[in-house]
Structure formats: C-alpha cells, structure tokens
Amino acid sequence: MKVLIVCQYYPPEPFRVGDLAQGLQEQGFEVTVLTGFPNYPHGKLYSGYPLRFFRRDVHQGVVIWRVPLFPNTSFDKLQRVLNYVSFFLSASLIGPFLVGSKYDAILTFQLSPISMGIPSVVIRALSGFRIPIYHWIQDIWPESLAASGLQVSPQITKAIRRLAGFLYHHSAKVLIQSQGFESRILEYGVAKDRIEYVPNWAEDLYQPIESNSEFAQKESMSGGFQVVFAGNTGAAQGLETIIDTARLLQNYADIQFVIIGDGANFQQLKDYAKGVSNIIFKGRKPLESMPMYFSIADVLLVHLRRDPLFALTIPSKIQSYLACGRVIVAGLEGSGKDVVDSSGGITCEPENPEAMRDAIVHVYKMSINERQAIGQKAITYYKAHFSRSRILGQLKQILTRGLL
C-alpha cells in the first residue's frame, strides 16, 4: 500500500511527522513525503539545504520530496503569510509532478498552517478523486492564530473557516489528536462517524534511563532539585509564567529551573529572566539527548497560556514526558489537564505563578519513593494510552479500511 504524507515541516525540523513516516514504513507501507525546505524554528534554511526548485532525499526507505518556500517563522504578518502561501502554492503546482498520483491514501499531517492541506486536495483531484485523504489535525484553525498571538481580521477568519470546512469535507476521515477537538469539527457539519481520535505518541528513544552524573555536571544540572521545561518557546507556551515562578522560588537555594528549546520568543524570554538567579536557558538540543536531560529532572514542566483553544488540545510533549517516567507539573486546562491528572501528575491553573510555585514545592517536599511511584504510574498510563506501536496499529487499520 502506497501512502503520501503531506506536511509543510519535516526533520531535521523538530516535528514528529518524521517518526510517523518511518513508523508507517515499518508497518509495511510504501511511504512518500511532500514537504518544504527546513527552516523552523528560526526562519532560516538549515545548513546543507540550499533553496532549489525541488530536492529528493531517501531516508530509511522513505522518499522525501522538498519544494521551495519563503523561509520565515517571525510574527511579521506579511512574511508569515508568504511562508504559508509559498508552500501550498509550490506543493500544489510543483508537488504533483514530483510525487505523482499513484497512491492508496494521502495523509495530511496538519500542523499550522491549515493551508498545508490544499496540496493533498490538488493531488487527489489529479487522480480523478480516487485517493482518499486522511486529515490528521494537530492544530485547530483559525483559533490557533489568535491563541498564538497573531491577530487577523474577521474577513480573513471567515475565509480560513471556509478553507477548513472545504478540507474536512474532502477527507475520508478527520483524525484528531485530542478528543477536545471533536466539538469544533462537528461545527463544520462533518459527520461524527468520519471523526476519529488518534493521539500522538513519543518516539521510542523516550524511555526511562539512569541519570549520568558526568552529563549532569557538564550541563550545570548536578545536585539540587531540577525543574525542566523542554520544547518550543513561542507565545502559546506563555513561559513568562515559568520565569515568574522561578522568581518566586529564588529563596529555595537548591531549586533550579532549566529551559531547553527555542522559538520565536526565545530572546525575549531570556531578557525577561534577567536578574532571576535560579534559571538557565539551554537553547535547542538534539532530539536524541532529551531523555538524558529528562533523567536528571525532578519535575518536567508543561504550560500553555489560558485560552479556550488550548483547553481542547494535548501538548505533544506530555507523551514524551510520560514515557520517561518523571513527575509532571502542568499549567493546563481541559484535555491536557485531564491526561496529566489521570497519569498521576500535578496540575495548576495556567498563567498563575503562585499556583505553579505551590505545585512545585509540593513535589519538592515528596520523598524519592513518592516521586518514583508517580513516575511509574506515568509510564503505565503512557503504555496503555499512547504507545507508539498501539497508535501506529490504529493508523494502519484506518488507512487499510478504506481499501476494503
């Protein structure tokens, strides 16, 4: 069975879509990917990827076709629009000639923007509307625009809603990474039996490992109580709350906050944290090193700004945290909060530094055995609900069901 994955982003950009492609290949599918040239999160092309009319790579059997785009991840509206439009235009106009149309299924891995789903519809149309599209929603649009700090006019919002409805109605199935998304998709008139909950997973490298004292010392994370946040440092994450929490805990000499990752707000956050003595910024680190950092952590943090949309989503870092068996403290509402609560973690009100401080101090005062018990519960919950093999098996069933 031949599957085409369409997504604007692909490794070496830090997105799970690469593991999705590899996982489907492992499940016996012949996988091709249509994507752009890597430029996220800094809006600059990665070394070794000069912009061309197209580029073809093969990685572990997966064929990857890249089409040109305008590299940008800033909050400048014009440049962001150019980034979005340039991909869907080149993927729609150039992409079909590169990837062809002989597929059994098209899987759109829809991060932001929603426009990355347009090339899937174009390729389906060129096949005589023979190929079913499976639209896997990671971000709800247009709500995610406002939630991430980008304000658009009512006219543009209306146009985006029309595009969303168009894409959903051209899909054999609309897959959602959080059950909280279902109510929003139903608003577009999509039949309930065409919506299927398919959560994210963590790559196999995320698992409990013994902490390495030499690594911890090298990273200035040895000794004390380590509170770690890993991931995107954009507006949606509202990391000012974590910095304010660190500020409130400066009187605890052995509590240290560590921010791993980067994004649009990285430098602003570093500036905001000036004078806060118990926080260090590591910047972006290789994916394969993350379990080492997590093994040192006493607490793993997740936080999203207070917004109705964020109450519907499950941040994908939660699966990685759970798989590594550490205590999670989460400033979340809604679906994400439910997962953390059910898996033994500690939740608090988002954008509330005092509440986050109290949650961290609560874990700080626990015995090592109590923390280990919570970590074990997290692993058990992960295996039951989010294991890679389980969800890839579910995807295989969904994709092959359409051929029966």
Largest sheet: 8 strands, mixed
Strand sequence of the main sheet, in spatial order?
A: 3-4-2-1-5-6-7-8
Total of helices: 16
| Residues in helix, % | 25-40%
Structural class of the secondary structure composition?
A: alpha/beta
Question: What is the average of the pLDDT values?
Answer: 94
Radius of gyration in whole Å, from Cα? 21 Å
General shape: globular
Compact summary:
It contains 16 helices and 14 strands. Strands 3-4-2-1-5-6-7-8 form an eight-stranded mixed β-sheet, with helices on both faces. The chain has a six-stranded parallel β-sheet with strand order 11-10-9-12-13-14, sandwiched between helices.
What does it look like?
By secondary structure, the chain is of the alpha/beta class. Helix content is 39%, strand content 17%. It contains 16 helices and 14 strands. The protein has helices spanning 17-26, 77-93, 95-99, 118-126, 143-147, 154-169, 182-186, 213-218, 240-248, 266-272, 290-296, 317-324, 334-342, 353-364, 368-385, 388-401; strands at residues 2-6, 30-36, 55-59, 62-67, 105-110, 133-137, 173-176, 195-197, 225-230, 255-260, 279-283, 299-303, 328-331, 346-348. The strands form 2 sheets. An 8-stranded mixed sheet has the order 3-4-2-1-5-6-7-8, sandwiched between helices. Strands 11-10-9-12-13-14 form a 6-stranded parallel sheet, with helices on both faces. Helix 2 packs parallel to helix 4 (118-126), helix 9 (240-248) crosses helix 14 and helix 12 crosses helix 15 (368-385). It is globular, with a radius of gyration of 21 Å. The two termini are 12 Å apart. The mean pLDDT is 94.
